[in-house]
Design brief:
Layout lengths: L3 E4 L5 E8 L5 E9 L2 H15 L7 H12 L5 H19 L9 H12 L5 H21 L6 H5 L15 H11 L3 H13 L3 H6 L5 E2 L4 E4 L2 E5 L2 E5 L8 E4 L2 H11 L16 H14 L9 H12 L4 H8 L4 H33 L1
Antiparallel strand pairs: 1-2, 2-3, 4-5, 5-8, 6-7
């Protein structure tokens, strides 16, 4: 597999060689455009290591393989986020290192560098999870002996501790403050009482609201990429769901949709931007003298209402579009703890009259 190296008429170098891939099949490869013969040879050697699933390949080559393999299984917006994190926070430190040479101490030193950048605990956890996912890919499919990121330990926290929640009374105060912004009023109210994500709200079509069956069909999500609105599939497969609507929301949607003259079932229900809604929730909170929360916190508030009213965990997970119950438990464990204490107090009150009779 020595290969041939040729200097082309334009002064660039090309390489041509045969290699055996991971399945044992002999294949031919040609690549042009290298500045030097040494550059062409280095590329050839790295390509062969990658083709053989050899963990002596450089980290950036392995990352390229990892991204290629997962690209068809995730949303483009998720892919963009992964690439951003990898290029900005991971590759600058690990580029040039062989995958097999990276150990837990290397990861610990990298974590120390990232921690100094002042990111939130949740973002630190996200960055660390991405590095761990790359090594997991090597462990599961390339026989990498172990995951050095897992051995190094977790960086950051799952929950930031700043989850904002409005009670039903606080939400009513807020809605009174923004009722002059007709469309925003209905959008905020729908989010609070259904728990849908902001992207899911913005992707809704008129036809997604079934007033007769009192159901909301979630089948897509809107994201903003390269200054363009892009309609994508929901965040997870479980994101495709049907949400039952309470009568008062059905009445609200009927009232709102009655004002949308000339709209077809394929037209978007809410023509807002994320920035507009973020601005309006801040403005409304200030007018209503409420603590400020994010638009996404309306989803958390909905979960809080369900949990505090003893709705079972499976129903909550399904309504929120979580892939599994564990996600719901991990996200809202502190709320379930509070609810558990309330249940204990209720049981205590039920028991006391019996014990007093004795």
């Amino acid at each position: 597999m020595a290969g041939y190296f040729t200097k082309e008429a334009n002064g660039k170098w090309s390489t041509q060689f045969y290699y055996v891939d991971y399945a044992g099949v002999r294949r031919r490869k040609r690549k042009c455009g290298f500045t030097t013969k040494r550059e062409a040879e280095a590329w050839k050697n790295e390509f062969i290591r990658k083709a053989k699933a050899n963990m002596d390949m450089r980290f950036e080559t392995f990352v390229e393989e990892y991204l290629e393999m997962i690209s068809s299984d995730i949303r483009q917006s998720t892919m963009d986020t992964k690439q951003h994190i990898i290029e900005l926070h991971i590759l600058p430190y690990f580029r040039g290192k062989k995958v097999t040479d990276i150990n837990a101490l290397d990861v610990k030193k990298w974590q120390a560098i990232i921690k100094k950048k002042g990111f939130s605990d949740t973002y630190l956890r996200t960055i660390n999870a991405q590095l761990s996912a790359i090594f997991n890919y090597g462990v599961n499919l390339y026989n990498l002996p172990y995951n050095p990121a897992r051995k190094a330990g977790i960086m950051g926290k799952t929950k930031s501790g700043n989850m904002g929640i409005w009670s039903i009374e606080e939400m009513e105060q807020f809605l009174s403050a923004v009722e002059n912004k007709d469309g925003a009023y209905y959008a905020f109210k729908l989010m609070y009482w259904t728990g849908i994500r902001l992207g899911e709200l913005l992707a809704l079509n008129v036809g997604d609201v079934d007033l007769e069956e009192k159901k909301l069909h979630i089948t897509k999500s809107l994201t903003r990429r390269k200054k363009q609105d892009v309609i994508d599939k929901p965040k997870t497969p479980a994101g495709n769901r049907v949400i039952s609507l309470p009568d008062f929301i059905v009445d609200d949607m009927r009232e709102y949709m009655g004002k949308l003259y000339g709209m077809t079932k394929n037209d978007r229900l809410f023509h807002f931007t994320k920035n507009f809604l973020e601005h309006e929730i801040k403005r409304g909170a200030k007018l209503a003298n409420l603590k400020e929360i994010r638009v996404h916190d309306l989803r958390h508030s909905h979960a809080s209402v369900l949990i505090s009213n003893n709705v079972d965990i499976a129903t909550i997970a399904n309504r929120l579009g979580h892939e599994n119950i564990k996600t719901t438990l991990d996200t809202y464990s502190h709320l379930f703890d509070k609810n558990a204490k309330a249940v204990a107090n209720t049981l205590d009150k039920l028991y006391r009259p019996v014990s007093e009779e004795e």
